[in-house]
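pasting input
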Amino acid sequence: MRYAYYPGCSLTSTAQEYDLSARAVCRELGVALDEVADWNCCGASPGHCTSARLAHALAGRNLALAERQGMDLAVVCPACLLRLRTTRRRAKADADFRRDLEGMLEMPYEAAHDVRHLLEILSDEVGMTAIRRRVRKPLRGLRLVCYYGCFLVRPPEVMRFDDPENPQALDVLMNTLGAAAVDWPGKVDCCGGSLALSRRDVVTKLVGDLADLAEGAGAKAIVTACPLCQANLESRQKGERFPVFYFTELMGLAFGVKDVHTWFKKHLVNPLPLLASHGLL
Amino acid sequence: MAGTSVVRCYQCMTCSLGCPVAFAIDDLPHQIVRMVQLGMAKRALSSSTIWRCAACETCVARCPNGVDVLGVMDALREMALTEKAEIGDPAVTAFNRTFLQNVRALGRQYDLGLILLLKLKTRDLFSDLTLGIRMFLKGKLKLLPHKIEDSKGIKAIFQKATGSQP
């Protein structure tokens, strides 16, 4: 199994542990990731909040570059995924749009290949049986809540992945790793996303609500699939109640990957005491 | 506008009831759609709602009539900028502008630069200082920016898409 790989900006900085753990688990599972050469920022929220054509062009450049690799594109940041997929869908459906896009990029683009989140690839292509076979250290006793956030499942027409109000994919994955994914009402509630720097007060309130819901569900940790959610949840929590893992980190831990300590050291809420207390280190 | 049919909105308020930032805005999403229906351009364009919207797509996922509420917000945001309307939350537009300036110059984001530029702009030098230092020491904020090779291509994209500085 081979995919072109678009890390996105945060994976080179604030979310390096996501990139490292994603690559490590893909190696374990025999999923090859070929990074797109000279990729650019997808534009994230500021792009589409400023100019639709700019947003499409920034996303489109990466799509056109990835197309040269002749494979589907794997992405781990849901915001990047939404931008890339939205542009691809429009280009596929609207020939005038595609021509305008190619004009801005000065590159051809046929929208031939899909853009997919790694969680989707693991669920639909790799499968839980293959993942269970790789588990050397089941995450027994680790009660956690799965935080999907916004873009993994919304907008439903674009994402077409899992239930938009009560998704299960992360829960199933965590249970496959031996952990105990606890049901809770905050699965798809927004963390405040890109208001992280401009409206800290909004993010702090939303993160506080999520932390309260996680506590109410009896969870000891939160697992997520979005670099901005992870950053918001860890940095704006009051009182460092919950470590916030990337699902790939927990996969790596369960697979017995040696590098896990280097990932966990990067967290703002230290996960080591919790993992040690469960005998998982 | 935004390729969606606002005329279908019958003000059921489902979007507003699910909006995560409803507590932080004066005009709720369904009210913004109503303004668009009634042609109240100035009111809609100068609202803080369009900037505090977190673009979470909850409204889109839940609207029973398939109104692209987020598409309406995006269209209003773009219009507010091109028509130089009074901006309802300048902190957000300052962030967006600085973010895109870095992307235009480097092709990718430069987190440390973004944070420092924002601090200079807002003159808020000390909040989150401890957090920033912690993140820097953990290697989460790269000291130096990365500039992509095809810098010319990125600048050409900005020029063609917006015709000017973002």
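fyi Chain A has two domains: 2-118, 137-277.
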